[in-house]
Design a protein that fits this description.
Order of helices and strands: EHEHEHEHEHEEEEEEEHEEEEEEH
Distance between the termini: 27 Å
Number of strands: 18
Largest sheet: 7 strands, antiparallel
Function: Involved in the regulation of the intracellular balance of NAD and NADP, and is a key enzyme in the biosynthesis of NADP. Catalyzes specifically the phosphorylation on 2'-hydroxyl of the adenosine moiety of NAD to yield NADP.
GO biological process, one term: NADP+ biosynthetic process
Radius of gyration: 20 Å
Main location: cytoplasm
Subcellular location: Cytoplasm
Protein name: NAD kinase
Structural class: alpha+beta
Shape: globular
């Protein structure tokens, strides 16, 4: 296991709870003489005048671990920046569910100490990249959870054609389509009726949003597939495309969206004892056997 020498801190702003956990992480790192690179948001929260602050982009090539304090949304944003540089992320949960940020505030001292001592596991998650053309310029943003296409004029339905690896699948009228990675299967996709997928699966799930059909169901395709969505050419069918509900673009009738697996993967660090099914039991309130912790 790698011993981390230079650690980046990123945080979600606007919460005293985040600030409290951020201070505890900072104290623990300093006590071990680990060099800290402070993201500008984390720096502002701490009011830290003792060192420089950085953008996430500037930090990406300089640290060998990033600790994200906040919720899963904080990790989603960090993943887009740090995954291409191979920098692993460890999450401290100050959000609601915390599927990705799995160190609870009460466990910071114990769990983080274990990780810094080299006692941890690494889990790889692939991201999705979506190719869209905006004003003649090609944009290729990415998402860890899902790429979502929906009507720009809610609650109007969107008409679109779906292709997988060049093969026509169907024409659909619905509120939109969720294109989810296995990581995102416990997020928006789950709320729309999609299956729960183990993070190690090499697959993508397509989940229709309120389709105007009784036989339209989620579709699981190979992870290496290229997915193409062509928006109907009718006037008034403008569509919006969002990446992890954090980046948003609008496309015109007749234009298309291409979605595929991103080459670089996110490396998530987990402390000892992490188990996907245990996380599901805890976060989704699945039943446990009597006496099982």
């Amino acid at each position: 296991m790698i011993k981390f020498k230079r650690v980046g801190l990123v945080a979600r702003s606007g919460s005293e709870l985040v600030l409290d956990s951020l201070r505890r992480v900072q104290r623990l790192l300093r006590a071990r003489d680990i060099e800290i690179l402070m993201e500008d948001t984390a720096h502002a929260l701490l009011g830290d005048q003792t060192g420089a602050c950085y953008t996430q982009e500037a930090m990406a090539g300089q640290c060998d671990l990033v600790i994200a304090v906040g919720g899963d949304g904080n990790i989603l944003g960090a993943a887009r920046t740090f995954a291409p540089h191979g920098v692993p992320i460890l999450g401290v949960n100050r959000g609601r569910l915390g599927f990705l940020a799995d160190i609870s505030p009460d466990d910071i001292d114990v769990k983080l100490s274990q990780v810094l001592a080299g006692d941890y596991t690494t889990e790889e998650h692939f991201l999705l990249e979506g190719e869209v053309s905006i004003n003649g310029n090609k944009e290729v943003p990415c998402a860890l959870n899902e790429v979502l296409i929906h009507s720009a004029q809610m609650p109007r339905m969107l008409e679109f054609d779906l292709y997988v690896d060049g093969a026509f699948v169907y024409n659909q009228h619905s509120d939109g389509l969720i294109i989810s990675s296995p990581t995102g299967s416990t997020a928006y996709s789950l709320s729309a009726g999609g299956p729960i997928m183990h993070p190690s699966l090499d697959a993508i799930v397509l989940v229709p949003m309120f389709p105007h059909s009784l036989n339209s169901r989620p579709l699981v395709v190979p992870g290496g597939a290229e997915i193409k969505i062509v928006v109907g050419s009718h006037i008034g069918t403008n569509a919006k495309i969002s990446f992890d509900s954090q980046l948003e673009f609008e496309i015109e009738p007749g234009e298309s969206l291409l979605v595929r697996k991103k080459q670089e993967k996110l490396k998530l660090i987990h402390p000892p004892g992490h188990n996907f099914y245990g996380v599901c039991r805890s976060k989704l309130d699945w039943a446990s056997r009597l006496g099982e912790s």
